[in-house]
# Entry
Amino acid sequence: MRSKKGILVSLLVGIPALLVSGCGNRLTVLDPKGPQAQTQADDIMLSIWIMSFIVIAVFALLVFMLLKYRASKQSKDYEPPHIEGNPIVEAICVGIPVLIVIFLSIVSVQSNNKVEATPQGYEGKAPLVIYASSSNWKWHFSYPEQGIETVNYLYIPTDRPLEFKLYSYGPITSFWIPQLGGQKYAMSDMVNTLHLAADVPGEYMGRNANFSGKGFAENTFDVEAMPQSKFDDWVKEVKATAQPLTKEKFDQLLEPGHLGKATFTGTHLDFSPPPTAENGGHNHGSSNSNEHSEHHNQ
Amino acid sequence: MDFFHRFAVPHPNPAIYASMVAIGLTVIAIVAGLTYFKKWGYLWREWLTTVDHKRIGIMYLISALLMLFRGGADALMMRAQLAVPENTLLDAQHYNEIFTTHGVVMILFMAMPFIMALMNFVVPLQIGARDVAFPRLNALSFWLFFMGAMLFNISFVVGGSPDAGWTSYFPLAGNEFSQSVGTNYYMISIQIAGIGTLMTGINFMTTILKMRAPGMTLMKMPMFTWSALIANVIIVFAFPVLTVALAMGTMDRLFGTHFFTTNNGGMDMLWANLFWVWGHPEVYILILPAFGIYSEVISTFARRNLYGYKSMVASMVIISLLSFLVWAHHFFTMGQGAVANSIFSITTMAIAVPTGVKIFNWLFTLWKGKIEITTPMLYALLFIPLFTIGGVTGVMLGMSAADYQYHNTMFLVAHFHMVIIPGVVFAMLAGLTYYWPKMFGFMLNEKIGKLAAWIIAVSTLLAFMPMFFSGLDGQARRMYTYSEATGFGPWNMVALVGALGLAAGFVLIVYNIYYSTRYASRDISSDPWDARTLEWATHTPVPAYNFAVVPQVNSIEALWDAKKKGHVLFKGKYEKIHMPNSSGVPFIMGVIFFIWGFAFVFAIWPLVILSTIGIFACMAHRSFEKDHGHYISVEQIEEIEGTETKLRGAN
# Structure
């Protein structure tokens, strides 16, 4: 019996160690490529360490009690005493968790404000605004500044803060590029803002993380981060080669189903504007702490 | 042809046809068996019409075990599909239906009846009462739950299962994106079962507050009764929200209203808010009675009183309050802004404090004890480390900035399975083993029981630990397949092994029931575990009236003090006992509710009207009925008490 417990202990203590060492490849979320994902990965690692301390404390206490107070280790006539409680012990059992929760709360509130604002280190720069809208089961990316639109893939410059405006043409979806930062919902009656930035050029996985029906599993997109100059070249190339996006073409794209990648000049924002522009939407005052967005709670 | 087309499953496959055949054969076998052994009368008199809380408890227990295997089959299919990349065992539609029904069945039709089973059986005995406050309402509660569960289950073979997730977020669950009747089943069957649960909540609150034995003040109630009281208070506050949300959802689907659709002023996140305002407290409705069971089991087998009784009670009260203040942590990513997220982040993490107090109290109950590892105790001891892992990952999820990365991933799935399985399921299995002798008059085999407990514990780790990693590696929940390049394959393969292990563990428990039924000794005392509280002061099996003489209580551990300090529990002579009469109406009303629900799902309006009239007729019948119950005479009591004492050799 004790050996089985030993296996359990080593399994549990081994987990955080395993996570940190990473077993060769690091887990996607713990391999951040931007300041927002970095904040989140730091929070995750910090909480894993603190929580492993608690798990180990509970384990140690349990093992101690089981080794010391097993009936088989005691005399037959031993009568366990009646103990109501102990103010000191209970103060410790409440006090330490309270301190930990207070500490984590402070960290949590700080991180909240960080991930809801322009990424650290990018404050001075004007953000690149990209409208990311989902339809069954595709992603449409509109670049109003550049006047272009892509489907199911995303090119982004590395040295600029990114401001994603999220909404949906169908069920609730969730826009997620794990290595750049955590996800946020895209809904059909409001526009959410997600602040991201990429520090390093590279290819990243993006997907819809919120179940949206039959085609959900394949509801992914590719993200490529590149230096500004390369990004500008790409925009130029798109403008020279891609077809314009018409209303008919866009309506066709909205039909449920899967598509490969596609590129257009112009955006759908002109003839099919996002919900905020249309009816005020349900902006929860969420998006941008710099922006003081209006509250239109219907 | 059109008429039959409506009841056809939209996406039939071999599993569905096999189920149709299996259901048909099972029904024929049951009907034939009952007829051959001439058991129809027995079934009707002793079970279908019973208002005895103990029998209702046993019926809840049987339903819960059946549903455990239904939900478990779904789980195995899911794990099998995900075990390797690009698997084609199931298609997307089938997978979506399976994870939806797995969630609903496990939470509402397995875990809920399991706690109802133990609450029904134990609470009246533990407080020295002869029945619950409203015995007939109790029977109706059971039949509504049971018919709700049956209605939900037939969706698999008639009309199509719900496929929008157990949370059924709109607009995905609306008519536009979920066209089959599946989501109608979801709305209506949960509604019927939920009304039953709400009535149970009222019933048990009343029972515990008004029917305790003389001397049992609130602060002398055993811990399981305390946990049941708090859970029922939460039920009474939370379930009406679900009732309203489901009614609105039903109207959206069947009557063209737009509460949750996103045109005509509807709001999709309104559903999410209402759902989780019920859904988060629901978690504590499940876990608090489980904590109560652990408290009883640990103090019994540590041979010591429960450490920190008052702080246990206080922590449960605090948890119940906090449970209503955290629902928005289910959608930190909705875009509610840093301020709202910070508030809900802090309230969420705050729950860790009272929960931690409970864990430490159990640990200190072991301190200076004389620990005996029986099967129920083994579950309780394995619960502590496993639940701690589940609990601390909950704190991690509570940090809202980090939650942006955990949300909707397998990390979350791993977290809630690591709290619900060790927390609720282990507790129910511990409670099942612990109370089995009181329910059925023999003990379950300890050797098989302990083996099953070990298999289940190790398999839980194998099944769910990998999900923490695959979640952090970017595997979203509810994906029916993934590519090889993602690297999720090995994690999911280990999870499948764990799931198979869990299945083996549960099968072993069923084998244990079979084995013990055949071979276990019937010659056991009424208090085989040497326990501490009143439910063990009755005869085994428990007579209909529970206690021939109402006990006098002096402390939290009434029976223990009677055994050790010589307190006299039963003072006074036998007097005639008033008991409620059995009634067929709750069962009939349940059947009519089933027909009503079925008609509603398929919008067969004449049948809806007819069955609505039937339901009101049952209620009218009750209001005009003159039923004053019956008395058990002193002679009968003497005979029962005499025979039982002789037969069982009990004290």
Q: What stands out?
A: Chain B touches chain A through 94 residues (CB under 8 Å).
